[in-house]
Structure formats: structure tokens, C-alpha cells
């Protein structure tokens, strides 16, 4: 912190008396020509002025900043002594017509041309260990850190289930190392141990990424181990887990990429065709925070009544530690360029926060009655606005609430931390998020909550209204929403928003998403369209109301729910649902505790709509959708983006209340403001959807430690005498197999069981395994889809010394012998409604069964592959040499 010396106080007093620029005591001017050249000097000048005798302490103070770029070598910090009052507020503002930049960056100069089209700059502070950075801007554009591959991903093949000889010991091998193609890791082999320390392995983990550091490498074996374990085991949530190698010299092969060597302090850059490095502006970050408001809420010492107007906060970084960046969700560990604690009546208006390595702004601990309005947040390493923090402060003074985020453009985020959120509210209430344009993120637009389940939540009475939320996901992450709720949120409104173009990767590109325990949320008058998955999804929750919305063009489904509970999950009423692909309902809809009424459904394909396994009349007989209709809503031109209703629309007769969805998003504050035009000016890249790798599995369990379960299966085990684990008790070949142990007194006859999430929809799927049955064991194996009322394809049962399919006995089978099974079925349009089975007995004799009928006539996708023990007493079966494959012609 900059301290005022006696000499500075005397010099400032003289300036105050004799400088024309300070002829009005309540105005303090900052300019690059001085005498006050920085915000820190201006802050100190405010302190001196307010401490002086004979001054009107009730007079407002204006710190007026002239045009130019002001270097911020350390954060500009305000403490309780820098507070304003209601009668003497303090404003830090741009001079009329000026757009001053407060930059935490440093310009890189001295560029020299190298071979291979590269340019270099020597940075002595990097070589000496005083500076290192992970962001670089060339002519205002975020340059790309050297990476491979340049587009899309590399793929892991399997996790490391036990420590490898010669490698450092691991407590959680499946979270800390994996195997991949040896040729994909070969580029790291020539690197020195020091160079490998700076390599980052970006691992994509459904809704979050991890940035790992390399601890150990055996490229010929395709083995890579990290310095710290990831949040989740590898290859559990994703088949062919995606990863990228970043930040090493060998990856610098694409125009626009750069690499910084810590060893020789040399920055290398490969210019784009239109860049002339002798004239280029290259800036790298020096600081992590530009502005810190450092109140002390626990002791009632706040920073209050301070405003920032028309200022531009640019260029901050973030240093990844040796352990890497491991996060659970929403990049919740990442701070912001502007940090506020213990702040009240603090406002940001017409500001700009850009070119950050972190979130843009965070009202963190003990912040109240503050706002950010009419501001432009863009090019962010993480997300936009954070409000509150994850824990519940037992001292109410430490809790954040009543923050307003209005009329802001929040675009182009998650450029380094891809799991970040446009507006992220944690354990915070009574906030207003309205009329913002939020787009161009790889994850969620607005997230509210931070409670998993029905625990204590401070996220209530938040208002998320009239926002334009769009262009999210890009097929990079999964499990996201335009709005994402997490936990109880009574009194929260999510209304009058326009949400569109949400593209998840494997699943979860949803428009409105109430996740675990979301309760008490009202969603009305929203226009939601063009989502890769459902337009509305509730995982589980209580008493949410979804009414008078327009939901259109969910690619795979329109309405999804994922868990049945005994209470009312949600009310879905007076909505219009329009689609031309996918299904209406997806997930668990078997006797759901939901209230559906007065909705209008229309499939532009004009095909009969499946209502959770029933036709419309059968669905209504179950007590759902009273007053609802299947009819064309008669939009003016929904395909063309006009969702106004024609006067003869049946929706109007049903009580649907039209709303003006064009009011969502930012608004101009004057005739020449141009704010709406600026929000609409950004262009968005085409979604480069990499096909999701088809799930495959081949395991003889010899590499799985005894006592561990199958590494990529979902297990249902109660641990009451039942278990699923690798054992050396029996094996078809080698030493190990999987033992599935049943037990009496379990709550369901289908426990224990395990399943794989396959996502096979075309081609031919094949499954083979060896099975050994104890007397009394009961084995079931089924292929299922994930429709609202799931359908079954191939299925077999083995019990009482016989093999059955659909309750029909196919053949006798010996007990306590290994029997080999091979099942295959064509999927998608190639499905003929039948499948093939081959059985090989221990003596080598074979028996084939052709054209066995699927369990459901319309089944044609393999999404869940299930293995079940149906015994109700102590009995076990063993499984070995399990192979799951899909072949697409």
C-alpha cells in the first residue's frame, strides 16, 4: 500500500492552495502530467484533504481522471478510512469525453524476427524468476497459448487404477493419472523436467475443466501422472475423456499462438497474417487485482458511498500453482479483477472490465446495497459478475445481499477457465439481475444457489428478469443452463428472459435448469429456444412454477426431469411447446409428482406426440395436462425468429398471455447511446461440435486392484452384505474377475446392480462377457434407452440353471461353470426389432439364437447397459472379460 509521508502531505497542501486544477476543494484531478498521476495518489490526497482543518466534510468529493493509460503495478485499494458518507460521497470518474484505462499490464517491446515465422522478445524478469504470465494480448486480442491439438481434443483411454512402478505414489490413482495414445504424449518426451513443470494438461470433466501439472510421464506406455488429483475419477463421466496439452515450445505451430520460456525468459509469438510485430501492441499482465475494496464487515467497518464512473479496468492475470487448478463447479476458486469485501453503497456505472485472467468483478463478503450498471464486461479469463461466496457466514454482517446488476453487456468469458459463469450468485439473497446481455461462454449464463439438496440456503428472493442469455456451451462442456439453479431459492423470479443457443457437449445444453434441490422458483414469460437438449429440465426440487413461457426447438427433448420424489416437483402450466426434432418428454416420467395443465403442444413434423409412453388421451387419463391441447400455436414465423402469436392462435383462447420478449436484454439510456447496438454487434463462432466418442469398454480386470469396483460403471450398492468389486476368488483367464454379491433384506430386488452410459444410437452394438453363477444366484442383463418410459432391447436372465429371454426359456445352463455370452443388435434406422445371441459353454460347444425379439418393439438406441443381481438371499455371480463395442458402417 502507498503510504503518505509528511513531505507528500506538505506538497499536496501546497498543490491544493496554488494549483488551478484544484481551485474547488472537492475536485481532485488525475492526469499523466501530474501533479497527481495515479488513483493511489488521489486516494491519499482525499485522506489528506478530509483530515485538514476548516474543510466542509459534508461536501461530495470527485476524483476526475483525464484520458490516458494508467499503470496499476499493485492493486488500487480502498479501506474503511477511504469511505464516503451519505452527505460526502466519493466518486472516481472519467473526465468529460475521456475513457481512461487502468491497466494491470505491461507492454512487451524489443521484438525480433526468428526462423519459422516466429518473433521473440527477451524478458529478463521472467528469466530471473520475478515474473511469469499466462495471458497475452496482441493489439487488443487475446492471443492463444501454444496448444496441441490446435482444434478439438486428444482422448484418454483408461484411468490408472494403481500406482505405476517408478512413478510417485498416489493416494487416488484413478483421479491422478490416466493412459492415452502413446503418440499423443510423445511431444512431451523431449522436454526437460523443468519445462514439463509449466505444461498444463487441460482435462474436460463434464461441467468443469481441470488444469493439471505433469508430475510423471511415460510416453511409450501412454501414461501421464499429475501433481494433484482431479475432483473426479478420469473416464467416469466421459467416454474417451478429452484433454489438451498446453504451454510448451513444440506446440507453437499455429498463427496467433505464443509461448513463454521460463528458462531463458524468451517470449515467442507466431503472428497472424495481418500483424506487423514492429508496430504491434503486446501487453502481458502484472497484477491479479486492479481494484480491491477492503472493508471489515465482521467489525462493522465498511467502505461506503464510493462510485466509479466511466473507467476502464484492463489487463489482469492469474497464476496457476504447482498443484494446478482443480475446481468443483463454476470455477468457484477463481477471484476477480475487481474485488469487494465489506462494501455498501458502492456503484460502478458505465465502466469497462476487460482482458482479465479471472472473473471481472466480485461482491464477495459482507457487501450490500451496491451495483454495477451500464457496464461492458468482456474478454474474461473466467466469468463476469460474482455475488456472495460458497459458505454460510454465521455472522450476518459477513453475508452479501441486495446487489444490483442491471443493463450490462457481459460477453466473451471463460477464455482460460471454461467452467465459469456470466453472473454467479452464491448463498446470497435479494439481488437484482435485470436487462443484461449475457453470452459467449462455454458454460452457464446465470447461476444461483450453491446448495446441493435441501440444506440451508441464503439464495432466496433473487430477481433474474429481462435478460438476454445466449450462445453458451459451444459443445465444450455439459450440464449447463441459460439459467442454472442449485438448491432452495424461495421467492426467486426467473422471468421475461430470452434464452437461446445453448449447446451442451454430451448432455445438458438446457435453457432453464433447476438442479439439485431447487425449490420455490417462479419461471414465467420466458422465451427459450434452440437448445441442444431440453428447453426446461428439473433434476429434482420442490414447488417450482413454470408458467406462460414459450419453449421451442429443443434438439433432443423439450421437457426433462431426472428424479422422482414424493412431494410436488413442479407446476408446468400455460406454456407453449413447439418442436421439430427429438421427443417431448425425457427422463423419469413414471407416475411423476408434477402438475401439468393448460399447455399447448405442437410437433411441426405433425406426427403423434409420445406423452411419456402414452398418447395424449392416455396421458390425460392419468390426471395430467387437464385443459391442455395438441395444436399449432400459430406463431408469425417461429423458424425465422418471430414468436409473436397470430390473432387466431389457440393459445390465446387457452389463457396464454403474450409478452414482449424484445424487452429482454440491455436498453439505451438516450437517443445516441448505442448500447443495444453494441450488445448486438458481437458475432459468434459456428459451433464446431465434435462427435461424442462412442462408449467402448474392454476389461479383463487384471489391472484393477482387488476390492475396487469397475472403473467406468455406475453402481447401486447398499453395503448391507451386498457388494460389487474385483476379486481373485475366480477368473476365466488370468487371476481376477468382478464379483457381484447379493444379500437378504435389501430394499429392492434389483440391488445390487451396475450400468454403463453408452449413448449408442446408430450402427451395431456388441457386448460379450464370461459369467460364473453360484447356486441361487440370479443374473439379469438388459439394453435400455432413456425415454420417459424406458424401452428394452436385448435382455437375458440366468437363474435356476436356465437361460431366459423375455421369460422364455432358451436353454439349460450349468451352474458353477464359466459360460461365454455374445449379444449384438443393429440400432437406429437399421434396427429390425430383433437381436442375436451366441452362448459358448465351458466344453466349447456353442448355440446361436437369431432374430430374438427386442423387449420393446420401438427400441433402437442403447443408452443404458445394465447388469443386475435379482437374488433376495446371499448369492453371487462373477463376470470376466467384459467387452462393449459399437461399429458404425
UniProtKB/TrEMBL annotation:
Keyword Lyase tagged = yes
Supply the alphabetized keyword list.
Lyase, Signal
Read off the SUPFAM superfamilies from this record.
Pectin lyase-like
| Leader sequence segment | 1-25
Keyword Oxidoreductase: yes or no?
A: no
Q: List, as start-end ranges, the regions of compositional bias called Polar residues.
A: 80-90
Domain (GH141-like insertion): give its ranges.
118-271
Q: Which residues form the Right handed beta helix domain?
A: 337-477
List GO molecular-function terms, semicolon-separated.
lyase activity
Region annotation (Disordered) maps to: 75-96
InterPro entries, sorted: Beta_helix (IPR039448), GH141_ins (IPR048482), PbH1 (IPR006626), Pectin_lyas_fold (IPR012334), Pectin_lyase_fold/virulence (IPR011050)
Please report the name of this protein according to its UniProt entry: Parallel beta helix pectate lyase-like protein
Organism, as annotated: Roseimicrobium gellanilyticum
